[in-house]
Model the fold of this input.
Amino acid sequence: MDFDAHDIFGNIFGDFFGGGRSRRPQGPQRGSDLQTEVYVDFEEAIFGAERELNLPLNSHCETCKGSGAKPGTTAESCKRCNGTGQERVTQQTMFGAMQSVRACGGCRGEGKIIKDPCSTCKGSSIVRKNEKIQISIPKGIDNGQAVRKQGMGEPGQKGGPKGDLLIVINVRPSKQYVRKGNHLYLDLAIEFTQAALGGDITIPTPYGEVTQQIKAGTQPGTVVTVKGKGVPNVRNEKQVGDLFVKLGIKVPTSLTSAQKDLLRQFAGDGEPEKKRFFGKKK
Done:
């Protein structure tokens, strides 16, 4: 079986001796993605919002058009690596002389040397400046999800495209609702008489108040479902979750004597307290 001993030793010892036979990409390279974050209110996450961001971003220098060289001049090919951006290094080991390929020390792997650098970017080909960016936050976005702005990331190399900008959305919690997926959950206390007699109750939703009918004898902990009053699906805003309302009972903190007597009668104590008192005395 044919094999290449250099391939075997290169794979085994390449990392140990500084990079093996890995090659630095020579063609256009896409720029790196960037990430920032934005805070929005709970309601803005439901209904969507617009934001303008002012961010310091790297861009190709307009003076030298991203070449890094002074206008009217050009970068020269590196004589040390003949423009390849790589150089082969020989090292002595216990197995004899070993060769590895690494980025050229003369041009730092660029393959070119700029003798007359651009005065604006100092030869780096990159400048940093503040840019205003408009972003649309879609309806139904959840905490931790991100909005992607294509081509707003780091500049590419060797003519490659820019990366993307990822805006992570932080949603401030609501004082009323708890969100789980596209559904909302709400605790709502109703009057004792409403629970006992039944009828219409008013339920607050992010879209405004709605009226819901409950039956007589509704117990604490009963859950009422309000269809379509939850959160839109971020990928299809026509699909909206539901609002689940858990009912509690308001306990009166101040009652008149007449109201207390009525409650005692309801509890099965018979006649009001005063009548029973005088009745016993007789």
In short: Residues 76-109 form one domain. Residues 257-266 form the longest helix (10 residues). Confidence is low (pLDDT under 50) at residues 1-22, 276-282.
